[in-house]
Amino acid sequence: MGRIRRALAVALVPACLAACSTPAAPAEPSTTAKPATTVTSRTPTTTKPPPFTPPASPAKVDGACPFLGLGELQELLGTSEDLLATEQPADPAYVPHTEFQCRYEGKYVHPWLLDLWIFAAAGSYRPATAMKNYQADCSGPVTPVPGVGEGAYYCNRKDTDGKAMVITGKRSHGQNRLAIVYLLKHRAEVYTSLARMIADRL
To answer: 138: which residues sit within 8 A by CB, 6+ positions away?
Structure first.
């Protein structure tokens, strides 16, 4: 159920536009189920993920996966399934080192859990403005998360089947940094915890 990704704000365009761009919503991840044999022939284990030390607002962003650990995601989602986090290849059409994507999947049961996108660029809209623009992708109410970054909220995504969006951002190290999580619908406390954890690390 992939869709064509709209242009991201961090893509370089003529210098006069670089300071007023907003990253567009990334492409919808595929949630095609794995073959049935994958689910039924393996028993989910409870292997403890390796120790995870989240970044404390790194001066340079090198990827999205370091912003959310597997163990803390397991605990947050209330699952004992082994999870995988895979940094996705950068799209050569966009400015290098400004947009990063990490995909989180279950090894046996859940072929897709969430995508975490991190945008870090000096020449783009301030996070509060970018987040307001992203409300166009919401279906139904937008629920703010108070006291997080320069703002944060969550909502159900428009034109998707059972998916939600959590977004937060702040100005950090001379960059406008934005974090967007696309995930299956969960409890409100999952959304607010994600927003708080990731905002502290931007």
So the answer is: 155, 156, 157, 158, 165
